[in-house]
Amino acid sequence: MTPEALRAQYEAGATVDELVASSGLSYGTVLNRLREAGTVMRTSWQTRRMRDGQARRNLAAHLRRLYEQQGATISELAEAGSVTRRAARRLLIEAGGTPRTTQQALRIRSAANTARRMKLAASLRARYEAGATVPDLAAECSYSIGSVYRLLRQAGTRMRPKHNHGPARTRKKEQS
Question: By the 8 A CB rule, do 120 and 141 touch?
């Protein structure tokens, strides 16, 4: 059996012992081929949870809620469920969910990022209008000064006039 075929069966829910029995290969050879194919290995409790009907349905429903209500990605579902991306996608479909297209996922992420940036811009505006300087704001939020200026402009902030903060300059006297 090829490493890819073993991986496909393993990700479909087969255990390593079942793969050993069906392939006639040794346990170590099956493990080596699974690793060679880049398979993410499960623990025994993850396999049991994946096979147990009610637990599987509960996990699938939980992943669907994360996906639809919180905008989680398939990768985040896989991490939350301690399964592979392929298994997470399959569980989502089993729960009645519909995987998003790449464009839909990007739009959701973009909207969330825009909302977060606007909230930050409003917060920066309030602190700026209370007297904070742009360099201080930049240092507080770990952004560049240019990014802070851009966020302040997006928030509609009326900027204070620029001041010369250096030492006072004296006129040079004319020498004759």
Answer: yes
Q: What is the dihedral of CA 78, 81, 87, 92, to 10 degrees?
A: -90
Of 4, 83, 84, give the one whose Cα is nearest residue 36.
4
Q: How many CB atoms lie under 10 A from the CB of residue 79?
A: 13
| CA nearest neighbour of 71 among 115, 112, 102, 103 | 112
In the DSSP assignment, the letter for residue 66 is H
91 CB-near residues (< 8 Å, 6+ apart): 56, 59, 60, 63, 77, 81, 83
What's the whole-model pTM score? Answer: 0.41
* Chain segment 66-111, per-residue pLDDT in tens: 888 887 888 888 888 878 888 889 889 988 988 888 788 778 777 7
- The answer to whether the CB of 34 falls within 8 A of the CB of 71 is no
CA–CA dist 128, 121 (Å, integer): 10
Return the SS3 of 41: coil
Q: Which two tokens stand for residue 82?
A: 């301690």
Taking the CB of residue 153, how many other CB atoms lie within 10 A of it?
12
Question: How far does CA 66 lie from the centroid of its chain?
Answer: 13
